[in-house]
């Protein structure tokens, strides 16, 4: 069975007809030509397909497109503003937080989601005081980013990049 939906992808309305079994990842890549999110494992285990859906990070390979018609999807390609890269993208470049680059779009989207979660006060498994505010520190970032795998093992630079971006975002209220 097919369904007509519209997704707002990186700021552009994108109408399409999808089979009701089509994942968001396949809708983006195969139907709309948006290749930033990658198909890694196709089982929700690697994080290469991570996008922001209605402001929250999701594994697009496990998300049905039809369930999110009218939703707002932001990929790594849609994060920058006014020709400037997002602070997370800038930090990944500054910290050399990638090697082959295959997982980088998912890592970047996940990092943006992680920083939003911490800023919103959502605790994680390593938050010391779940009733208090989580701290932007190595353990919080490493725990929250643990669903994003990197075959090249760029982790030593990814966590510091996310920490740098978090500190920059805290200073840049207008971002």
TrEMBL record:
<dbReference type="Pfam" id="PF01799">
    <property type="entry name" value="Fer2_2"/>
</dbReference>
<keyword id="KW-0479">Metal-binding</keyword>
<keyword id="KW-0560">Oxidoreductase</keyword>
<dbReference type="InterPro" id="IPR002888">
    <property type="entry name" value="2Fe-2S-bd"/>
</dbReference>
<dbReference type="InterPro" id="IPR012675">
    <property type="entry name" value="Beta-grasp_dom_sf"/>
</dbReference>
<dbReference type="InterPro" id="IPR006058">
    <property type="entry name" value="2Fe2S_fd_BS"/>
</dbReference>
<dbReference type="InterPro" id="IPR036884">
    <property type="entry name" value="2Fe-2S-bd_dom_sf"/>
</dbReference>
<dbReference type="InterPro" id="IPR001041">
    <property type="entry name" value="2Fe-2S_ferredoxin-type"/>
</dbReference>
<feature type="domain" description="2Fe-2S ferredoxin-type">
    <location>
        <begin position="3"/>
        <end position="79"/>
    </location>
</feature>
<keyword id="KW-0408">Iron</keyword>
<dbReference type="Pfam" id="PF00111">
    <property type="entry name" value="Fer2"/>
</dbReference>
<protein>
    <submittedName>
        <fullName>2Fe-2S iron-sulfur cluster-binding protein</fullName>
    </submittedName>
</protein>
<dbReference type="InterPro" id="IPR036010">
    <property type="entry name" value="2Fe-2S_ferredoxin-like_sf"/>
</dbReference>
<dbReference type="InterPro" id="IPR052914">
    <property type="entry name" value="Aldehyde_Oxdr_Iron-Sulfur"/>
</dbReference>
């Amino acid at each position: 069975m097919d369904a007509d939906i519209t997704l707002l992808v990186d700021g552009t309305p994108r109408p399409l007809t999808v089979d009701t079994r089509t994942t968001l990842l396949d809708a983006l890549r195969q139907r709309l030509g948006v290749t930033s999110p990658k198909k890694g494992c196709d089982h929700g285990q690697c994080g290469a397909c991570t996008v922001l859906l209605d402001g929250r990070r999701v594994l697009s390979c496990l998300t049905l497109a039809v369930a999110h018609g009218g939703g707002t999807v932001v990929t790594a390609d849609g994060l920058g503003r006014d020709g400037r890269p997002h602070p997370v993208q800038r930090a990944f470049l500054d910290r050399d937080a990638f090697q082959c680059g295959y997982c980088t779009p998912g890592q970047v989207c996940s990092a943006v989601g992680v920083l939003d979660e911490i800023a919103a006060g959502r605790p994680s498994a390593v938050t010391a005081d779940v009733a208090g505010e989580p701290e932007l520190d190595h353990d919080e970032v490493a725990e929250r980013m643990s669903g994003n795998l990197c075959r090249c093992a760029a982790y030593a630079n990814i966590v510091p990049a996310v920490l740098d971006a978090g500190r920059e975002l805290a200073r840049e209220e207008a971002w």
